[in-house]
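Below is a filled-in request sheet from our internal design queue. Each sheet records the structural input a requester submitted and the sequence that came back. We keep these sheets so that new team members can see what a complete request looks like end to end.

REQUESTER: design group, bay 2
PRIORITY: normal
MODE: inverse folding
CHAIN LENGTH: 99
BACKBONE (tokenized):
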């Protein structure tokens, strides 16, 4: 099992709506940009896939949300966030020196 969900983000970057295991880490990564199903429950997975297959409007909404969500994890965005975090930590005064 992959902890981050890179495959899901890659699918979203290609504009694909995703059905995903309803697990805490995946929920955090995808938010409402995918359709969750209960891991190990084939009926739950079938329901999630049926929802995406039947409802064209929902699929379009999920596709747009997928692309927007994937942008949060692209290399440029990730690099900028890492740089900001590094600068914040590197130049933060130790607690004992704060006024």
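RETURNED SEQUENCE:
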């Amino acid at each position: 099992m992959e902890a981050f969900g890179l495959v899901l983000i890659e699918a979203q970057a290609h504009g694909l709506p995703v059905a995903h295991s309803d697990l805490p880490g995946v929920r955090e990564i995808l938010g409402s940009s995918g359709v969750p199903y209960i891991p190990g429950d084939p009926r739950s997975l079938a329901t999630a896939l049926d929802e995406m297959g039947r409802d064209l409007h929902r699929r379009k909404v999920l596709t747009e949300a997928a692309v927007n969500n994937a942008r949060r994890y692209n290399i440029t965005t990730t690099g900028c966030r890492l740089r900001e975090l590094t600068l914040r930590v590197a130049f933060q005064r130790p607690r004992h020196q704060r006024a």
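SHEET NOTES:
- DSSP finds five helices and two strands in the chain.
- The chain has a mean pLDDT of 90.
FILED BY: M.R.
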